[in-house]
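User: Okay, second chain of the day. Same drill as before: sequence in, structure tokens out.
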Amino acid sequence: MSNTIGSAFQASTWGKAVTLIGVAAALSLAGCSTQKVQRVDANKEIALTDKWNDEDSRLVANEMIQDMLSFPWARDFNAQNAGKKPTIIVLNVRNKSHEHIAVDTFTNDIKRAIIRSGKANFVAGGDERLDIRGERADQELNARDAKRQANEKASDYALSGSINSIVDQADGDRVTFYQVDLKLVDMESNIEVWNGQKKIKKFSERSSFAW
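Assistant: Same drill. Structure tokens below.
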């Protein structure tokens, strides 16, 4: 009887030892694993999650600015000002979504889309404008051909908006919805001459092999 109990105890102890050895080996292999990193084309979309990414930022900016410049306000401004291009300032785009979004990247994509269109000019605002004014003030003291302070180009229109999101999730599957709203306001009359909206919906499905 005692021999049987002793054998069972030894078997149990040996099984636990084998399990501990296996766990230790797995941890050792994990610690020794290396991560492969390679350079890829910056214009290539690589979506690792369903979160807002650089491709969303670029596509939304390009599509919305193209839509904005196709509205009657741009044609009317050209007709009333002997073909002169309207000047736009980007005030702010608020992130009201559920996640952190690099809003500065999105506003820069907007600025690039405006300038690249060739149909409108863009003027700096906020901290950037203050930095430029500071540089002009320094030029007045130290440069022979300093640019004058009171010679800025006033903006004709102001662009602002927000990014919102809704997340619906069940049993590991998730639908993430983004809505970007932008509006353009006449700086003199305060009339809203354009209101644009872009929606993005992403479906993330849990893999059947996940465990």
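The longest strand covers residues 157-170.

User: Thanks, on to the next one.
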